[in-house]
């Protein structure tokens, strides 16, 4: 029993949690992801590494919906993402069942971040190696939101953010060029941010937009925007 | 599209012929004669395929009762499970709501996980499975008629009773009223009914229940599901909630 209690995530003498920081390294190696919040629209974009010729690219969906009004994109270990996404989807339905209300974006973000934190304080497990960008609309007020979580379990709301590879360059671009936009302008901002760091552009990005009325829509030809 | 001179008369079922329009003339060698024969249309006794009669209709009474007290007479017992499925449930009120909402959320979860909705058959089997699992521990006293429309297979209706019996049926009924409804449906139902004919049959059943059942519920709701989705069709109210008189 003694061996099982050994936590993998322990404090270092100078107060760091190395496993969490190594997990953040894994995120930094994952593909780029960007999220932008407009006044009536939220946009998620991810870099798509050039697909192997024989691979069916439709089976690799990087932007997923958690509920009718919430979507998620992530950077990092995709296998870990599957687990988190599954738990989040169950929580969305469970919330609807117990309180007869859809989740707010903040609630489900807090839930996912809580899960990520749990795995930094348990015996024998490692943290999830991914950061998520969660977008959606409040089910009653219709206000759009964008949140980010990371392996340490912290989360916060953003107007625009990026994670994964070269996220610093993307964030710099967003800081320089962000302004309150709506509709197509928001989409263009997200795509331009991605194109800063993605190699050849066009075929290598996957973009999805969410509006209050139509839910999540995957864009067909992002390079054509 | 260019018009050509190809003769293409409509071909009635059970007809035969030679050559055009169903078979080639003098192919592959000159002088070859091909003859053809058309079978019967299975769907409709009138001998023609009528589109637009792909639907399923369910009706339920709308009274919520506790012993001798009627709590409310506009309780909607037909839940819209997803865009193309209806679940009409009767039985213990608490179980009815708990169970159908549980099924609804699980059906939604499946759709999010897999990107496509469950078929009606799959939803019916899942429902039956849940009833069966709970049966010998903590049974749900809920009887269900599950109606749905699938793009590939069209409309379907499933009879699921509280001890987890599952039957795919063309017509079904639960409750004391079923004695009368089943008799009416046996007499008047035929395959290929139009929406108007089906609603007329539902109304016949309702009339029988109202006139012959000693504790007949006053109000009913009718819902329909077809290729355009699941939706409320009509209410049949003989007792409206009276407006409260002002003091």
Automatic annotation (TrEMBL), chain A:
Keywords: Cytoplasm, Nucleus, Proteasome. InterPro entries: Ntn_hydrolases_N, Proteasome_alpha, Proteasome_alpha-type, Proteasome_asu_N, Proteasome_sua/b. It is found in: Cytoplasm; Nucleus. SMART domains: Proteasome_A_N. The keyword Transcription does not apply. It holds the Pfam family Proteasome. It comes from the Eukaryota. Residues 4-26 form the Proteasome alpha-type subunits domain. The 20S proteasome core is composed of 28 subunits that are arranged in four stacked rings, resulting in a barrel-shaped structure. The two end rings are each formed by seven alpha subunits, and the two central rings are each formed by seven beta subunits. Belongs to the peptidase T1A family. PANTHER family: PROTEASOME SUBUNIT ALPHA/BETA. The proteasome is a multicatalytic proteinase complex which is characterized by its ability to cleave peptides with Arg, Phe, Tyr, Leu, and Glu adjacent to the leaving group at neutral or slightly basic pH. This is Proteasome subunit alpha type.
Automatic annotation (TrEMBL), chain B:
Gene3D superfamilies: Glutamine Phosphoribosylpyrophosphate, subunit 1, domain 1. Residues 10-51 form the DUF7081 domain. Keywords: Cytoplasm, Nucleus, Proteasome. It is found in: Cytoplasm; Nucleus. It holds the Pfam family Proteasome. The keyword Isomerase does not apply. Component of the proteasome, a multicatalytic proteinase complex which is characterized by its ability to cleave peptides with Arg, Phe, Tyr, Leu, and Glu adjacent to the leaving group at neutral or slightly basic pH. The proteasome has an ATP-dependent proteolytic activity. Component of the proteasome complex. Belongs to the peptidase T1B family. This is Proteasome subunit beta. It comes from Hibiscus sabdariffa (roselle).
